[in-house]
Design a protein that fits this description.
It contains six helices and five strands. The relative contact order is 0.11. The chain has a three-stranded antiparallel sheet. Strands 4-5 form a two-stranded antiparallel ribbon.
């Protein structure tokens, strides 16, 4: 076993062209080796996911005090939101009740009501229930309720709110 002579820290070992010419040299260390590691730079900015959508009921929910509540917010549905109601006895006995229970889970705000639940939804007018079912379908299946359009006269771009998917609704 051969030992090399001890060198003082920081002293360089001189290399001659003949001694180290055919040996591979390690690449110099990058300056970022000692910098704190962060996430890699993302060349394209990410779009944020919109999870809540405001709506306005055609007629409005009338509470026990006679107050009409029309403005609300619906959030995107999760798999759990669609699966849990299937265990509900009311839904098992009457599958049409599924939308009532489901809407009670995804409507996060309605007017000044402190809480929205399936009991609120089942006491809505039929036209409001149909509106909410359609709205639910739009935001969960199609992803949005607005469409970018262009004016046929002046060519200015603008957005329109899609209020219904059936012919004649807007």
């Amino acid at each position: 076993m051969r030992r090399s002579a001890a060198r003082a820290p920081g002293s360089a070992v001189p290399q001659t062209a003949a001694a180290g010419a055919d040996l591979p040299h390690p690449a110099p260390a990058a300056a970022t080796d000692h910098a704190p590691a962060g996430p890699p730079a993302d060349p394209a900015p990410r779009q944020s996911l919109r999870t809540e959508f405001p709506f306005e009921l055609p007629r409005g929910y009338v509470d026990d005090a006679g107050t009409v509540h029309r403005d609300g917010v619906m959030r995107l549905s999760t798999a759990r939101d669609e699966l849990v109601p299937l265990r509900d006895v009311r839904v098992q006995e009457n599958p049409a009740y599924l939308s009532v229970v489901l809407l009670g889970r995804v409507i996060t705000r309605l007017g000044a009501l402190p809480m929205v639940h399936d009991g609120i939804v089942e006491n809505m007018f039929a036209s409001d229930l149909a509106f909410l079912q359609d709205f639910y379908r739009q935001i969960n299946a199609e992803g949005h309720t607005r469409a970018a359009v262009q004016c046929p006269h002046c060519s200015e771009p603008f957005e329109v709110e899609l209020g219904g998917s059936r012919l004649g609704e807007s």
